[in-house]
Specification:
six-stranded mixed beta sheet, 7 helices, globular, five-stranded mixed beta sheet
């Protein structure tokens, strides 16, 4: 199966073309440039550099969240547009799950964390053993303190990944000696992981593809709070 994958859920942006788990081409950027500027050229380069086009793609995969509300929307919108053009099936992938695939080849527990602000993180925990990834909890938003308490229930090497990894590691490295910080080159989400995670998942239509934020955007939270105060 040939999968064209996208991730723009946080500061990094990436695109990859993967065929039967073989990486044909991938592009990754972690700059201050906006994803609306970088993502489409990446997708174009991935296809051109493999002499491919959308007619050779079996599915389009995208990280649908959690993550930056704007970044997730950009990635989902881009994939929707490409899929509708040729009626290509889509695969929705958790951003947190995709990061666990950075550690295929290692035996460890991956604790994926993204900074959700307000002393909270988006989190998912996964076991990586013998080249396979098993989810240990559902994606969630929780405080860093609550995450530290939960991690006490896990034995073995725990690797912290994601843009909230350093924040979390510095917060509880003294009380959790089995926790390590992922190296920089494996720390962030990547479209390659999105493609790997998409293998075997259900295909959906472009119309069914939707973001998964875990919590309301700030504007909606503020509106809800204002309406409650007016009652």
């Amino acid at each position: 199966m040939t999968i064209l994958a996208v991730d723009s859920s946080a500061s990094p942006c990436s695109a990859a073309l993967v065929q039967d788990k073989k990486i044909l081409s991938s592009f990754f950027s972690n700059t201050a440039l906006t994803h609306s500027r970088t993502l489409v050229p990446m997708l174009d380069a991935v296809l051109r550099n493999t002499d491919s086009d959308l007619s050779r793609v079996d599915a389009l995969a995208v990280s649908v969240g959690p993550g930056s509300f704007t970044g997730v929307r950009i990635g989902v919108a881009a994939v929707k547009g490409l899929a509708m053009q040729d009626n290509i099936p889509c695969v929705a992938v958790s951003t947190l799950e995709a990061m666990a695939y950075n550690f295929i080849g290692f035996d460890c527990i991956v604790c994926a964390v993204m900074d959700a602000r307000r002393s909270q993180v988006y989190n998912g925990i996964f076991s990586v053993v013998n080249g396979s990834v098993e989810r240990l909890c559902e994606d969630r938003a929780l405080s860093i303190g609550d995450l530290a308490e939960d991690l006490k229930n896990y034995d073995g090497n725990i690797v912290i990944v994601g843009d909230g990894a350093e924040l979390c590691y510095n917060s509880f490295k003294e009380i959790l000696p089995n926790v390590t910080l992922a190296p920089e080159h494996l720390r962030y989400q990547n479209a390659v992981g999105v493609a790997m995670a998409a293998e075997g998942k259900d295909h959906i239509s472009a119309e069914e593809l939707m973001p998964s934020y875990l919590r309301l955007p700030q504007a909606e939270r503020e509106l809800k709070k204002r309406l409650e105060n007016e009652k």
